[in-house]
Amino acid sequence: MEQRHFAVLVIGAGASGLGAAIGLKRAGIADFAVLEKAAELGGTWRDNTYPGCACDVPSALYSYSFAPNPEWTRAFAGQPEIRSYLRDTAERFGVTAHLRFGVEVTRAQWNEAGSRWDLETTRGAYTAGVLVAGTGPWHEPLMPELPGLADFPGEVFHSSRWNHDYDLTGKRVAVVGTGASAVQFVPEIQPVVARLHLFQRTAQWVLPKPDHYVPKLERLLLRRFPAVRRALRSAEYAGMETLGLGFRRPWILRQVQRIGLAHLRLTVRDPVLRKVLTPDYTLGCKRLLMSNSYYRALTKPTVDVHPVAVKEVVGNRVIGADGTSAEVDAIIFGTGFHILDMPVSSKVFDGEGRSLDEHWKGSPQAYLGTTVAGFPNLYLLLGPSLGTGHTSAFMILEAQLGYAIDAIGKTLRNGWASVRVRPEVQDAFNDEVQAALPGTVYQSGGCASYYTDVNGRNSFSWPFSTGKLRARVRDFAESDYLVETSATERTRRATSVR
Questions:
Q1: What is the mean pLDDT of the chain?
Q2: pLDDT in tens, 415-452
Q3: pTM beyond 0.90, yes or no
Q4: How far apart are CA 361 and CA 341, in angstroms?
Q5: Are residues 469 and 433 in contact, defined by beta-carbon separation less than 8 angstroms?
Q6: Per CATH, is 5-140+338-497 categorized as 3.50.50.60?
Q7: How many helices (H) and strands (E) does the chain have?
Q8: Core-most of 231, 308, 425, 491, by most CB within 10 Å?
Q9: What does R_g of the chain's alpha carbons equal in angstroms?
C-alpha cells in the first residue's frame, strides 16, 4: 500500500525541492517525499525550453556548493545542461526514489488538532508533520489580459511554454515583452522569421555577456583539482558581490551604466533606434540583463521595434498603445511570471482556513523569507524579501535550506508538535528590510519592476549583502519561535488559560 503520511512533504521538484530533498537525506531524515505535478523534475529549467534559454549568472555559481559541476561547457550554462545537472545531482544523492510525479497539490491546510498538514492532491490525500514549499517564483507564466486576444486566428504562446511544433520560418511574429527571456530568444528566432515586431513597454539595460566555451583542458583541470574549482567559484562569487555593492550604492551602478551605453552605441548605429532602446532609469532597478546578440538582432531590416505597450488585438493585428499596429501570424509573450502572487499562496491554508493570500493581502511577508506567522511547520524556499539582482538563486537557497533543515531536524528529534514564528519577530524583520530598501537601486532607480507588489511595496528584494543573508539564516534560533512540544501539552496549556 502506498505511503500517505510522511514526517516531511516537499512540494516541487525543481532546484529548491531537490535541494530540500538532498538536505533532508544528508541530515539523516528519510521519512519524506517530494510531490511534483509534472512528469519530470527540473522546475523552471524543465519548463523553459525556448531557443537560447540560459542562466544569467556564471555556471560555477549556478549549482549547489555540495555538488560542484566541473563539466559546464559554457561560462553561462544553457538550459539543457542545467536540467541535466539537476537530474544527475538528484540521482547522485539518491533522492529520485522519494519523488512522486504527477501529483499536483490542490490544497494544503494545517490541522491544529492533529498538529499536521493535510494535503489534497490530484492523486488523493497526503498528510505530513512538516511542509516545505519549493515551488519557486519563476513558475507560473504571466499572460496579460488583452482585449481580442482570444479571437486571434494565429498561434499564441508564452516563452516558458514554447510551442516547438509550430514552425516560425517565414512567419510574421509579434514579441510582447523585453525581459530576460525575450533578450535570449529574440536573437535566435530573428534570422528565420519573415518579420519580427517587438513591443517594448520599457527599454532595458543590456550589458555585454562575458560568456565563452569552456575548453576541455579547463574542464579537466576543474575535474582533477577541487581546489581550482573552489577558487573559480570564490572568484565568481567575489565578482558578483562587488557588482552587488552597487545595488546598495546606486552611484556605482550609474558608472557601470556607461558599459551598457557603450555596448548600445557600438551595436546600434541608427540614432532613432538607439534612443528608443536607451533606458531612462538606473541600471539594476530592473533585473540585470546580458546579451551579445540582442541589440544586433534589433538592427536587422526585418525587425520593427514598437516602443509602446500592447493595447489590444484586433483580428490578426496587434495594436500598440499609440495606435500603431502590426499584422502577424503569431504572438509570443515574454512577459515573465507570477512572482509575488505565486499560485501556491492560494493553496496553502492556516488552521482556520485562511490562505497565505488572505494573510498577505497582496504583500507577501515571511521571517527570513522562510517561515510565516500563523503557519506552523511550514518552510518557504526562495520566499519574499530574499531576491537579489546580482547573485545566484542557489546561494540564497542553500542558506535557507541550512536553516530550514536545522529547524526540521530539531522538530523531529525533540518530538515537537509545532514550530511557529512569533509575529513580532516576523514584523521586526520585515520592518528592518523595508527601512533599508529606500537607499537601494531597487527603490531609488526610477523604474517600475516586478519587485513591487500590487500595494506598491517591494516584497521581493533583499537590501543587504549576500554574506549578511547567509549569516542571518545560518542557525535556527528557537527563541524566535513558539514551540509546542506535543498536542497534549497544547491542550493542557489551553485548559490552564481558561
A1: 93
A2: 999 999 999 999 999 999 999 999 999 999 999 888 99
A3: yes
A4: 10
A5: no
A6: yes
A7: 15, 20
A8: 425
A9: 24
